[in-house]
Amino acid sequence: MIGGGRKASRGALSFFGNMPTCAVPGCNNASGEGDKVSTFALPKAPAQKKEWIERLNREGVTPEKSRVCEIHFAQECFVPPEENKGARGKALKRKALKPGATPSLFLRPPKVEKFSELSDRAKEERFNSKRDECQTANDSLKAANEKIAEQLAMLKEKDDQIARLKLTDGQKSVQLEGCKKVLNDDQIKKTTLPESSTMHWSDETIELCIQALMRMHNTGYRFLLHELKYPGPSIPTLLIKLRKAVIEAGKGDVFFKLISKKTETMSEEEKVCCLNFDEMAVKPRYEFNSTTQSYVGTITIPLSKKQQDLRKKKTGVYDESTELAHKAMSCVAVSMGGKWLQLLEFHYTGLSFEAQAVADWVLSCLRRTRATGLNPKIICMDNNPENVAI
Asked: Is 246 in contact with 292 (CB distance < 8 Å)?
């Protein structure tokens, strides 16, 4: 109490037996001798002093006399006890604030002015500020709505695409039947697999694509696979299959079949060719053919009548399956108007051969060559006595 019995006003430095009270509205803490509550004067630095006064949020603050008690400061604002020492290193009982500390706890919230209490200029400024905030929020909302609309349009387009791709069972059946008219089963399966997946191709597809390769050459076949997305084996795969093809003496159907596809892309001049029959020496022995899992090396054209009689007289029997071949006779088509040649067929022969059997074979090769579309004009062979007999 101060003379007259009136209560001391809070905020400025008041004395209750020379004890300063806290300037924070609503706080009655005071410090004095024997009191454990510490109060702190406002800082002298102008910027920090202004911040303290704003946080006190009251009128009539006297910076030189006002105090703020310790309960309005966070714990991290105080100097640690072990560092709070005097000039002689003695620990101080009174708490000390760190540089830059500001009160932040148990303060009265700032007063918000009512709109009706503002001046006309302040009202206009606040109105303009709120209007700008609303305009900014409206622009952001409009942009967000436009983006959502674009995404919805994209989703709708994708839904439409999916709907178009979805086929009824009847449509799938019709589509599948249409595919089977031009594609084999393994080719249809390939269309449902990833492009990088490996595929085991059927013999039918391999043969079909070899024919396509013969007609189109490498460039055309690559265009068919990569640009037109035709499901089929690559060129290296086809070449591997061709290298593994079973080629046996007297069985040249595979070559005649391939050349028949090739002739479809030839000019009439390129089709003119010569059939060249020639023999070459081979080592007489048995060899195992791993492809056919059988032994080869015996003759496929009978010996001459004279040699057959000699065999019967010497051994009592003539058996072609045991007669080892000494030569191989080939039939090669050689272009006369282009730059190509192709082996058509070959036979294994002994030291001699039956002229009629070879003559029949030559006529068979001539007939089958013409059937491919080629135009053989000449039959060529050397002038040894056996060939003359042919």
From this structure: yes
The two three-digit tokens of residue 24, written as one number? 């924070």
Give the burial class of 249: count Cβ atoms within 10 A of its Cβ; 0-12 exposed, 13-18 middle, 19 or more buried.
buried
SS3 labels along 322-347: HCECCEEEEEEEEECCCCCEEEEEEE
CB 376 within 8 A of CB 273: yes
- In this prediction, residue 311 has a pLDDT band, given cuts at 50, 70 and 90, of confident
User: What is the pLDDT at residue 197?
Assistant: 73
Domain ranges of the chain: 1-111, 115-165, 176-242, 266-389
Write the pLDDT tens digit of every residue in 186-231: 888 887 777 767 788 888 888 888 878 877 778 888 898 888 888 8
Q: Could you read off the pLDDT of 232-290 as tens digits, one per residue?
A: 898 898 888 877 666 788 887 878 887 887 888 888 999 999 999 999 999 999 888 87
Q: Which residues contact 49 (CB under 8 A, 6 or more apart)?
A: 42, 43, 63
Task: Judge contact between 18 and 35, C-beta under 8 A.
Answer: no
Please return the burial class of 328, using the count of CB atoms within 10 Å of its CB with bins 0-12, 13-18 and 19+: middle
Q: What is the pLDDT of residue 4?
A: 38
Rounded to the nearest 10 degrees, the angle between the axes of helix 355-371 and helix 253-262 is 30
pTM of the complete model: 0.45
Q: Which residue has the tokens 């008219």?
A: 181
- Torsions phi, psi of 200, nearest 5? -95, 110
β-pair type (287-289, 272-281): unpaired
Contacts of 39 (CB under 8 A, 6+ apart): 20, 21, 22, 29, 30, 31, 67, 68, 69, 70
Contact in structure between 279 and 349 (CB atoms under 8 Å): yes
Instruction: Give strand ranges (E) for 200-309.
Output: 272-281, 287-289, 294-296
Distance of alpha carbon 353 from alpha carbon 379, whole angstroms: 19
